[in-house]
Amino acid sequence: NVKFQVRDLDLYYGDFQALKKINMDIMKNQITAFIGPSGCGKSTFLKTINRMNDLIEGVRIDGTIHMDGVNIYKDIDVINLRSRVGMVFQQPNPFPMSIYDNVAYGPRIHGIKKKSQLDEIVEKSLRQAAIWEEVKDKLKKNAQAVSGGQQQRICIARTLAVGPEVILMDEPTSALDPISTLKIEDLAEELKDKYTIIIVTHNMQQASRISDKTAFFLHGEVVEYGETSQIFNNP
Length: 235
Ligand code: ADP
Ligand code: ADP
Description:
Layout: E1 2-13, E2 16-27, E3 31-35, H1 42-49, E4 59-67, E5 70-71, H2 78-84, E6 85-88, H3 99-109, H4 115-128, H5 132-135, H6 148-160, E7 166-170, H7 178-191, E8 196-200, H8 204-210, E9 213-218, E10 221-227, H9 228-233
Parallel strand pairs: 3-8, 3-9, 6-7, 7-8
Antiparallel strand pairs: 1-2, 1-4, 4-5, 9-10
The structure holds adenosine-5'-diphosphate (ADP) (2 copies).
């Protein structure tokens, strides 16, 4: 049930080593939380999983990451990887277009043109992101004109619409109010039945509430990794 197998992963930004010998098996159908103080490498590691940072000038990566047994730095192209590994950011970032067009954006890029087919994907994705009932009567409204929590769920729907297997969430609730935060947490728990979910958070309560596994980062190292229930019971 391993989705990602990470072995001896080092990452350097120029001379600075941001990740040190990371070894981790990340499981399917679980929520894995990355926690630790600011600047300890959580985001950097998350971004190595969809190759958002190896194309940056001066970045060097050693070690391997396999997804379903395939080396993502050698044997999959980035476009393919990105459609299988979706990402949700800290700041909700819907495109400046309608709610419908945001969610239809990825499918359209992938060549889906038929209105009925797009309608179906848009509805399904918005339902999966637990926002359909709130927006079904205003799909033509600009996605940037709804609340922050709704924008974040629209962004999750946009990611789901492409049909990923993995959802990376980089502090997805840090910019949200407590009620919206709980909605996103509930949503993550629902989604784990179908996806592999990795969430970066600096919020220990959030990690203990929703994650199955927790990795503690410190100065670029994973200093502890295991079942969340055990990690939080034996600090
Ligand atoms: P976290 O997500 O845990 O807050 P990051 O992964 O963002 O930490 O950053 C880890 C370290 O790498 C920090 O010291 C940060 O300053 C550094 N860093 C992050 N991105 C870059 C970059 N593009 N170039 C150089 N250093 C970076
Ligand atoms: P990529 O640049 O990874 O090839 P595409 O432009 O092909 O991505 O868009 C595919 C999907 O990726 C979009 O439907 C959207 O969900 C997501 N996406 C692209 N750019 C962003 C962004 N800036 N913020 C959030 N999601 C994005």
